[in-house]
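Justification of computing resources. Each target in the renewal requires a structure prediction run like the one illustrated here; the chain below, 155 residues long, is used simply to show the kind of job we budget for.
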Amino acid sequence: MRLSTKEQYGLRMMVELARYHGQGPVALSQVAQTQQLPLPYLEQIVIPLRHAGLLSSARGAHGGYALARTPDQISVGDVVRALEGAILPIPCIEEESGARCERKGICAVSNVWEVIHARLVDTLDAMTLSGLLAAAAQPAAGQEPATCRSHRSAD
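Resulting structure tokens:
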């Protein structure tokens, strides 16, 4: 599964907001600058995250965005679903509707897709924003702390 740019930026934004949890709203421009993300893109990403109940917003001079729940109550799966909908590693798995692929009875690998889907969902749901923050703060033995870089290739 490849996370979309929207999902990658959304996760980075949510982890950044988790850093400031309990300290009041954070200006989106501050998140954009700190994470080196385009502000207009973040302005679009916050909409589905607010609708999903993951973010709250405050207007005014000291306004901005804050997590609507504690960082340990928001999973990577929550963020991915808010931004892209169902987590589907392959189109023949329909998480939301319960519909099944028309080739289910004859497909030799349908069980493989179901196992991959279940493990992917379990993994994303098990990872929380607080866990991501903790992992980012703890570099592996003998390594410098990780920094985020662009993953764009020169295709």
